[in-house]
What we know:
alpha+beta, DNA polymerase, domain 1, 6 helices, 16% strand
Amino acid sequence: MIKEINIEHALHNSRVQLFMKFNYDAKAIELVKTLPGVKWSQTVKSWHIGYYPEAVNSIKHVFRDNDVQINIVNNYDDVIIPRPLNLKKPTDALPDLNQTQKEKIKQFKYWLQSKRYSESTIGTYIDAIQTFLRYYASKNMNDITNEDLINFNNDYILANHYSASYQNQIVHPVGLKSI
């Protein structure tokens, strides 16, 4: 029986996969084939399964009684996932606003107008707040916290390499008035 397996996260056929790399061993292959959804890649010359958060643990579980060392070569976050060609900008991937969010944005727009903000500023702020709310579409608006704003900044604004001025355009309207 083999002594070690290297697990590498990589993109294959537009999906993140966990590749199990090891020297040929009939017993190891027999165990690998017990994993749900496992496939052989002729291109990579390796067995692989689709990524899911517990995938590594599933692989470890299969080999638990065989004294096989599992080496994790890289992590899911190390895989560069290209943006689909039909997405021209990151907001294209965000869900649409629900009716409650649209109504709150309308109220926010009226509030900005009552404070005599310029139409240009209002448009910028409305666009920014729509992006923020679309990012948290699955979350009740009343449950959005300052920590969510920080996460949005890190996971959306910085991850998509937006400018500091864009960051301010998002943060400022959120801080102006509770939506």
